[in-house]
Design brief:
This protein is α+β, with helices and mostly antiparallel strands. It has one domain. The protein has helices spanning 3-9, 13-19, 29-49, 51-59, 65-69, 85-88, 90-93, 100-112, 139-153, 233-243, 251-257, 271-287, and strands spanning 115-125, 128-138, 160-162, 166-167, 198-199, 203-206, 218-225, 259-263. A hairpin with a 2-residue loop joins β1 (115-125) and β2 (128-138). α1 packs antiparallel against α3 and α4 (51-59) runs antiparallel to α8. This is VRR-NUC domain-containing protein.
C-alpha cells in the first residue's frame, strides 16, 4: 500500500481546509492560486496511488452495487471500542457494504497518513492570554478527498460518492454537472462550506453508477468512524430519516437498511486476519 505517496498527493490540502477557518488563519490570493494548482497536479497522478481500487471500480462500472453486497460478510460486531457500541449499533456494523475492499484501501491510507492541520488554542495563564498550536489529524477529510479524486478519475461514474449533500427537509440530492457529480460550494476545498439545511453522509454507495445519487438510487449511506471519533445515535438516526422514502410501504425498514457503520480499521477488509496473526504471535511468545 503506497501510503506515503498518497500523503504526498494531499500534502498541500490542509491549507485549503484553513481557508474556511477564518478565525484561525488567512491566505493570500497568491496562496490560493498556488494551492489550486497543486491540488490539480495531485489529482492527475492519483490513479497511480490507488490504482488497484480504481481499476476494480472501472471493471465493475456497469454492475449493480447490490451484486457486490452479496459477497460482503459485514462488519465486526464482535469488536467494541468502548461501552456497548457493538450491541447498540450491531445492525449498522453488520450491514452488507458493496466494495468493502476498495473502501478499506482508501480508509487505511487515510488512517496511516492523514492530512495534519495546525490548530491554534488560546488559554489564560496567570491572567495573560497565551496562544499555543497543536496538530490535528484529519483522517475523515483525507479519506473524502481520496474518494472524490477517484470519482473524478472515473469521470464522476464511481459508485462511491464522498460527502454528497442532501436537503435535510426534502431529501433531494444537490447535483452538480454532470448529475452524477456531487455539487460543491467550496472554491478550493470541496467539502466546506456546505448549505445550512443540508445533510452529508461520509460516503454513499449508489446502485446505478450512470444515474444521479438521489436517495432512491442509494444502496448504502455509510458513516465512517476513525479512532477517537465516537458513534452518535443522532447521526445514525439522521441518516435513517434521510434515506426513508416519503411514500410507500415498509418506509422505516427501507430507510434503516440503507444505513451502515464502518469503523476504521475494525470493520475494514483484512482486519480479522491481522488480529489472528497478532494472537498467534502472542501465543508463540508465551510458549517461548
Amino acid at each position: 500500500m503506497p501510503a506515503p505517496a498518497a500523503a504526498a498527493l494531499l500534502a498541500g490540502a490542509y491549507r485549503a481546509y484553513r481557508v474556511y477557518q477564518a478565525h484561525e488563519a488567512a491566505m493570500s490570493t497568491a496562496d490560493l492560486a498556488r494551492l489550486a494548482s497543486e491540488i490539480a497536479e495531485r489529482k492527475s497522478t492519483i490513479k497511480q496511488v490507488l490504482q488497484q481500487a480504481i481499476e476494480a471500480l472501472t471493471r465493475e462500472i456497469e454492475i449493480k452495487s447490490s451484486t457486490f453486497a452479496l459477497v460482503d460478510r459485514g462488519g465486526n460486531s464482535t469488536v467494541s471500542r468502548r461501552g456497548n457500541e457493538n450491541v447498540i449499533f450491531k445492525e449498522y456494523i453488520e450491514r452488507k457494504v458493496p466494495f468493502r475492499p476498495a473502501i478499506s484501501q482508501v480508509c487505511n491510507v487515510a488512517l496511516q497518513m492523514p492530512i495534519k492541520v495546525p490548530r491554534r488554542l488560546r488559554k489564560s495563564v496567570a491572567g495573560d492570554s497565551v496562544t499555543t498550536t497543536i496538530e490535528v489529524a484529519l483522517k475523515q477529510t483525507t479519506a473524502s478527498l481520496l474518494f472524490e479524486a477517484i470519482d473524478e478519475v472515473l469521470e464522476w461514474c464511481s459508485p462511491l460518492k464522498a460527502e454528497p449533500n442532501y436537503n435535510r427537509n426534502s431529501s433531494k440530492a444537490l447535483l452538480g454537472e454532470p448529475e452524477t457529480r456531487p455539487k460543491r460550494f467550496g472554491k478550493v476545498f470541496p467539502f466546506w462550506p456546505r448549505p445550512w439545511e443540508s445533510l452529508a453522509p461520509d460516503l454513499v454507495v449508489v446502485e446505478y453508477r450512470q444515474e444521479a445519487f438521489e436517495t432512491d438510487n442509494v444502496f448504502a449511506a455509510i458513516e465512517i468512524k476513525f479512532p477517537g471519533d465516537w458513534i452518535k445515535d443522532k447521526q445514525m438516526m439522521d441518516y435513517v430519516e434521510l434515506m426513508t422514502p416519503k411514500t410507500g410501504i415498509n418506509r422505516d425498514k427501507i430507510g434503516t437498511e440503507k444505513v451502515a457503520l464502518l469503523r476504521v480499521p475494525e470493520d475494514c477488509t483484512g482486519f480479522e486476519a491481522d488480529e489472528k496473526k497478532s494472537a498467534q504471535h502472542q501465543q508463540v511468545r508465551k510458549k517461548s
